[in-house]
Amino acid sequence: MKRRAMAMACLLGAAGVTHFVRPATFDSIVPPGLGNRRFWTYASGLAELSCAAMIAAPATRRFGGLCTAALMVAVYPANIYTVAKHWRSPKGRSIALARLPLQVPLVKVAWEIAEESR
Hints:
about 0% strand, transmembrane, membrane, signal, Putative membrane protein, transmembrane helix
């Protein structure tokens, strides 16, 4: 497996597992308007594990890269919600704001994995 694909698969796999091991952490960043937070925590964890598996397998790597890019865009509202939620806490706000630009390279790398797998 190519190095970036392996790194992305490991990152997604670890994050996906963490959704099930420590769900309360993720429940707290699900915008309340989406309803059952635990459902969305588990659904996003399952999506990350699925993306990791697709990227790990050469036959599905292209589709996995595209799905991962889409997933990173789809979860971005949770990061924005987290900024708003922690706005009055300087430390919380700083951490939440720092996470926002991190999604950009994740989308970019996922897209590049898909492109390299053509």
